[in-house]
Design brief:
The structure is a single chain. This protein has about 260 residues and is α/β, with parallel strands linked by helices. It has one domain: P-loop containing nucleotide triphosphate hydrolases (Rossmann fold, 3-Layer(aba) Sandwich). Helices cover about 40% and strands about 25% of the residues. A six-stranded mixed sheet has the order 6-7-8-3-9-10, with helices on both faces. It has a four-stranded antiparallel sheet with strand order 2-1-4-5, with helices on one face. Bound molecules: adenosine-5'-diphosphate (ADP) and magnesium ion (MG).
């Protein structure tokens, strides 16, 4: 039986109005890749932000390895280091080199020696094909390169779980693949990950399990083949239908 790493129970979140997350129950197992799908505004980013305690929650619990992640906990900084997050917008410091962007947190928050942090940063940059860009500044990099640096910056903290929020949504199409390949590589290494994405082929390739979120609830949960080929709920069928185009020419010919 795989070990539960992240456990979310009866999570309720609102921003003042109605509930944005309305009773989420979700367990993510060690080494599992969970893909979260859903229409815009359904609460995907909010869910990831709650897991990292970036947002206060109104009810329920979120725990990592059985330890509750709470905003009022003295342990929050330590727990947060175990949850790595990568955003659509990279969030790199423009005035710091790639190497300094990556080593800032391990040196400050984990008090690791500069030399050790830099050696690991270079090894990780090598792994994502960017070793020769260590001295560059973010403005000198393409979007795809910046996003790979942002992934390295998360990895160097040795997180137990990685959260990806539409990390390719702002990229030009030709750069999407280089970032998704890095995430596929992390999946092969057995990393535990929660991935929000609109790249359906990638979702299918990387996911162990797919969750469809709608109006703040999980409406379907299944292995990728089952989810994409045999969606059970009407809601999932409708969601998938919005993503596929019928072949217009062929249709006209058959009429
Ligand atoms: P998704 O990532 O699935 O597109 P979000 O989690 O960003 O959805 O948003 C879910 C809902 O919460 C939306 O209706 C959005 O307008 C609302 N929301 C998100 N962030 C805030 C905020 N900081 N303040 C108020 N409402 C917000
Ligand atoms: Mg979002």
């Amino acid at each position: 039986m795989p070990k539960a790493l992240l456990t979310i129970e009866s999570l309720v979140k609102n921003y003042g109005g109605g509930a944005v997350l309305n009773g989420i129950d979700l367990t993510v197992y060690e080494g599992e890749v969970l893909v979260i799908l859903g229409p815009s505004g359904c609460g995907k980013s909010t869910l990831l932000r709650c897991i990292n305690a970036l947002e206060p929650i109104q009810a329920g619990t979120i725990s990592l390895n059985g330890e509750p992640i709470r905003r009022d906990s003295k342990d929050l900084p330590r727990l947060r280091q175990k949850v790595g997050m990568v955003f659509q917008s990279y969030e790199l410091f423009p005035h710091l080199s790639v190497l300094d962007n990556i080593t800032l947190s391990p040196r400050k928050a984990q008090r690791r020696p500069r030399q050790e942090a830099e050696a690991e940063a270079l090894a990780l940059l090598d792994r994502v094909g960017l070793k020769d860009r260590a001295g560059d500044y973010p403005r000198q990099l393409s979007g795809g390169q910046k996003q790979r640096v942002a992934i390295v910056r998360a990895l160097i903290m040795h997180p137990e779980v990685l959260l990806f929020d539409e990390v390719t949504a702002a990229l030009d199409p030709e750069m999407v693949r280089e970032v998704l390949d890095v995430i596929l590589d992390l999946a092969r290494q057995g990393r535990t990950m929660l991935i929000v994405t609109h790249e359906m082929q990638f979702a299918r390739a990387v996911a162990d399990r797919v969750v469809l979120l709608d109006e703040g609830r999980i409406v379907e949960e299944a292995p990728p083949e089952e989810f994409f080929d045999h969606p059970k709920t009407e809601r999932a069928q409708r969601f998938l239908n919005t993503l596929t185009f019928e072949t217009v020419k062929k249709k006209a010919k058959n009429q």
